[in-house]
């Protein structure tokens, strides 16, 4: 009887490890920690509450200030936004600096439940303008499955820069040895040359759900420029939403992806 019981437990564990695993994802341009509709008003607690309520596995935040004079104006002291958000939410945080700004840094933020190999890659700027980067982490799910997750904010001025930055991201993503998801504020629309340039094995969650909801601005005068991209050979889409929240000039973009089972 004992042998039967332990065999049953083992079979259950194997079934669990072989089951499909869902990954909840959120990307959000947070307008450097300030409410655009209420200048000088922090949006930190609104964002922290959103993450606590939603509990995504991986989060990418754009327009992140770290110890800048601007953050001191908004919060009364220089603020390391990601470190504070990490403490408040229980996530592991990482700040990927794109450039120096007002005595501190400005760039990308990642928050994950479990991760390793955090790193930042500078992106090309052939036409000049603001420096840009992408922050990466190797994230790990409860089932011990691993994938790479990247968050970025592409150039808002020059198509030439965005194309070069895309090429850099895609080349690096295709070199990785685990499934990949990359997200962010890409500053181009679905009808742009940049969007059309992305190879077909990369799928975009909004398009796959037939969503036309804007992610920036107002429904009457906005655009869909924030995206969640995934390798369709490794993931399939379960859910996609744009969350209509007023904490920034962008909206949070949410998706659930299911990691495909490996062929035996």
From TrEMBL:
Endonuclease/exonuclease/phosphatase domain sequence ranges: 26-250
Q: Which GO terms describe its molecular function?
A: endonuclease activity
Has UniProt tagged this entry with the keyword Nuclease? yes
**Which InterPro entries does its entry note?**
Endo/exonu/phosph_ase_sf (IPR036691), Endo/exonuclease/phosphatase (IPR005135), GPI-anchor_lipid_remodeler (IPR051916)
GO CC annotation: what is one?
membrane
Alphabetically list the UniProt keywords.
Answer: Endonuclease, Hydrolase, Nuclease, Signal
Residues of the signal peptide: 1-22
Q: Which domain of life is it from?
A: Bacteria
Q: Tell me, which GO biological process terms does this entry list?
A: GPI anchor biosynthetic process
Q: What is this protein called?
A: Endonuclease
Organism lineage string: Bacteria, Pseudomonadati, Bacteroidota, Cytophagia, Cytophagales
